Amino acid sequence: MNPAYHEVYKTLGLNIMYYRNRADLSQRQLGDLLDKDQSHVSRIERAGVGVSLDLLCRIAEILEVEPYLLLKPKD
Q1: What CATH number does residue 47 fall under?
Q2: Helices 53-63 and 27-34 meet at what angle, rounded to 10?
Q3: Distance of alpha carbon 58 from the chain centroid
Q4: Quick one: pLDDT at residue 65?
Q5: Interatomic CA distance for residues 8 and 27, integer angstroms
Q6: Which tens digit of pLDDT belongs to each residue from 3-52?
Q7: pLDDT for residue 1
Q8: By the 8 A CB rule, do 47 and 12 touch?
Q9: H helices present in the chain, as ranges
Q10: CA 21, CA 24: separation in Å to the nearest integer?
């Protein structure tokens, strides 16, 4: 993960957490749907690890949001 994009990854993580909670999913449940560990989902939400475009799109699909919303800072 490029440190220059840390703020983008922070925004991504916060948005994933927001939409995951809105969907009433735990980190473990989201991880199971993604075929990832709960700890990996946690690291994504804490901006500790980067994500591929494929994974970003899959997360958006599961959370039933457009992918760009996961990258958009909240007002």
Answers
A1: 1.10.260.40
A2: 120
A3: 10
A4: 98
A5: 20
A6: 889 999 999 999 999 999 999 999 999 999 999 999 999 999 999 999 99
A7: 75
A8: yes
A9: 6-22, 27-34, 38-45, 53-63, 67-71
A10: 5
In a domain, 27, yes or no: yes
What is the pTM for the complete model shown? 0.93
Q: What is the DSSP letter of 73?
A: P
- Residue 12 CA to chain centroid, in angstroms? 6
Report yes or no on 7 lying in a domain. Answer: yes
Alpha carbon distance, N-terminus to C-terminus of the chain: 25
Domain enclosing residue 60, as ranges: 3-64
The total of structural domains in the chain comes to: 1
d(CA 20, CA 55): 15
Q: Is residue 35 domain-resident?
A: yes
- pLDDT on residue 52: 96
